[in-house]
Write a structure and sequence with these properties.
CATH superfamily of one domain: Vaccinia Virus protein VP39
Shape: globular
Largest sheet: 7 strands, mixed
CATH class of one domain: Alpha Beta
Helix content: 40-55%
Number of strands: 7
Strand order of the largest sheet: 3-2-1-4-5-7-6
Strand content: 15-25%
Distance between the termini: 53 Å
CATH architecture of one domain: 3-Layer(aba) Sandwich
Structural class: alpha/beta
Radius of gyration: 18 Å
Length: 254
């Protein structure tokens, strides 16, 4: 029996997707190959990912109201739900709803929730957020590294739908990759981000090929643009709870 035989079905493999030179780099997607390594990819590609998960879970518990729903839009493998559940007071009853465009991600999420003994009511379903969304009775909505993958022409409509479906005093928690506010900062932030990825074992080739794969898929806004968009759809109480070079976390209260 080898090492992989001892792993649970939800265990992540090492991210080596871009380690070999490709003749043609296809657009990045969240299919089977990405799903298999996604948790490793997050831990090695997103600065302070564990701390971001802890912070978003803490904030979510501050706003989670018993008898309501908590949504994770772009839930991938449900790391966020697994962070939130242990922090909830025993008298709080929530319905967890995870939406993702990838059935493979949801399959991995189901395996992880099962392996962890997740006790709360939950629903995971395939959804293309570019096509819109309908939320009901939501006290907390997560968008962790999700809005950046929504086509720009659909972002305002999506956020309007989220705002409409949230309860009063509910919280929208967003984590995004962003552009620097000017070209100098943008260049420096990207440089230091790539240095971070190298420290985590990614080669120059892997960084370059993934950058090419994401070019037409991940379209970041400036941090100030995201704040303006949130205000435009109705959020007035907004703050930044995390910032590391070109990554930031935002919390907005309805």
């Amino acid at each position: 029996m080898n090492e992989s035989d001892n792993q649970s079905p939800s265990a992540a493999e090492r991210d080596r997707i871009f380690s070999e030179r490709k003749q043609r780099v296809e657009d990045f997607n969240f299919g089977k190959e990405t799903t298999a390594v996604f948790d490793d990819m997050l831990n090695r590609s997103v600065p302070f990912y564990g701390e971001i998960q802890r912070m978003t879970a803490e904030l979510a518990v501050d706003f989670a109201a018993s008898g309501t729903s908590m949504y994770d839009l772009g839930c991938s493998t449900c790391n966020t739900f697994l962070q939130v559940a242990p922090l909830l007071p025993p008298d709080v009853r929530l319905r967890f709803v995870g939406l993702d465009s990838s059935e493979q991600m949801l399959d991995r999420a189901r395996a992880k929730l099962k392996d962890s003994g997740f006790k709360h009511e939950y629903e995971l379903r395939v959804s293309d957020l570019n096509q819109g969304i309908e939320l009901t009775n939501a006290s907390v909505v997560f968008m962790t590294l999700t809005l950046q993958f929504i086509r720009p022409m659909h972002r305002e409509v999506l956020l309007e739908s989220i705002y409409k479906g949230m309860n009063e005093r509910g919280a929208l928690i967003i984590v995004e990759k962003v552009l620097g506010e000017n070209s100098t900062f943008n260049r420096l932030f990207i440089k230091h981000y790539y240095e971070y990825k190298k420290r985590n074992g990614y080669s120059e080739l892997e960084i370059a090929q993934k950058r090419e794969a994401l070019e037409n898929v991940l379209i970041p806004y400036h941090h100030t643009e995201n704040l303006q968009l949130l205000r435009k759809v109705g959020f007035q109480q907004i703050d930044t709870f995390f910032k590391w070079y070109n990554f930031c976390g935002i919390v907005a209260i309805k």
